[in-house]
Amino acid sequence: MKTIRDITDLKDKKVLLRVDFNVPVTENNQIDDTFRVKKQKEIIDYLISHGAKVIMTSHITTVSSFADLIPQFHILLGLEINFIKSVADIGKYFQNYAGPALLENVRQNEGEEKNDPEFAKELAEGFDLYINNAFGECHRNYASVSAITKCLPSYAGPLLEQEIVQLSKVIEAPKEGKVVIMGGAKASTKVPVIKNLINLSEAILLGGVVANDVLKEKDQDMGSSVVDADSHELLAGLDLNDSRLVIPKDFIIFDNKILDIGDETMHFYLDIVSKAKTIIWNGPLGLFENPVFAKGTNEIAQAIVASSAFKVIGGGDTISAVDKIGLLDKFDFVSTGGGAMLAFLAGDKLPGLEALN
Question: Is the pTM here over 0.90, yes or no?
Answer without folding.
Answer: yes
